[in-house]
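FAQ: What does the model actually see?

It sees only this:
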Amino acid sequence: MSTPVWQPEELRTDPHGRSDKPAKVQAMFASIAGTYDLNNRLHSFGLDQSWRRTAVRMAEVQPGDAVVDVACGTGDLTELFAASGAGSVRGIDFTPPMLDIARQKWMRHGAPREARGAVTPTYEQGDATALTLADASADVLSIAFGLRNVGEPKTALREFRRVLKAGGRLVVLEFDEPRNPLIRAMNRLYTHHIMPWTASLIARDSSGAYRYLPRSVETFLDRDALRAALLEAGFTQIQQKPLTFGTCVVTVAR
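And it is asked to produce this:
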């Protein structure tokens, strides 16, 4: 069993305002890395990969594009970009155990994908708020279900703009709360009460990860606030597509 990272009293307030949030997030994801993919598939009812494929389509990857996938986790979105026709794909994450799994997955599944034209992704540890990438070096930068876990999301958005070339696309895939009151109530019942119990059981997790995750969605920027933050960071041409009754949203900005 993992050691506690998030205490119940810490989640009664906004976890995004904590100065120790990055360290807690890193420890939390390290504790659940081994069962992360299984819980994603089970608790999204298999829809998480469909959401990622939509994000890749909306990125409009062109042949030869340089793609950077930030908060790449175990590499699901990174691998989809690797098969998209991109010229290079780099996955960056804050938590080394997640990157270890991403590399192992590519070693198991990469050869047949390379035979079909996929590029081999590279993986490295990094901080979304201080990327070790050159200015204007990426055509596409993505972050899936990770922006709310960054210590300073608005700093990360400015960093993403620095790294993107002129006309480059930022793709943010993030959970949101449905606008329909009935669906929102049902979604909250599932994400706040059912999922935390079953996911923690599967992961044998006592870190509090699956109590933090729904709370982090509830207290984070909704799609309108994200649009405003993107405009403030200097992005334009913002397109947003709600998925699965608005439980998550793909946002693309240039």
